[in-house]
From TrEMBL:
Entry protein name: DUF7924 domain-containing protein
Span list, region Disordered: 131-170
Domain DUF7924, residue spans: 1-122
InterPro entries: DUF7924
Classification of source organism: Eukaryota, Fungi, Dikarya, Ascomycota, Pezizomycotina
Pfam family, one: DUF7924
PANTHER family on file: VAST DOMAIN-CONTAINING PROTEIN (PTHR42470)
Amino acid sequence: MYFPFMTGQWKRSQNHTHALPQGARDGAVIVNYLRSFFKEARGDKVGEPGVTETCHFSITFDGWLVMVWVHWYDAKSGAYNMESILDAAVNNKLSNIPYRAFLRNLQDHAMGSRLETLKDAVDQLREHTLAEQAQSSKPARAKRAKTSTDAVTDLLISPPSSTTPPPPSG
């Protein structure tokens, strides 16, 4: 399982016009995956995962300008959204200060509370999976054991009358 917290598209010769649709696609796929993952891990009892749990960040870069985007799913409208939240010119030190600070904050979030949330969800998924396997395997084991026991009992009670194989049907 992979849980990316940031993806990027770099299109030097085409600027952001080619990077944006690819970033939008990547973001929607990741947000959708995270929604599915949290729903499965927590079961149907909890409902729709929160936006902060499933949002995704991406960057687009054209060689001169880097743009930071946030992707999320709006449960009320049923739409995936993508919004630019920050941009910086790479040749302007002043515009890079907030960009670099944002990336450090995002990394801290990804390696802190977001990672803990994901770890908890992985543990919940493991528990649900083991419980489901235990429930589904009990009847199957009983059925297999009964079938094996019946076959042995039948063989002991009424052994085959001949060791010669039956003639082919046809």
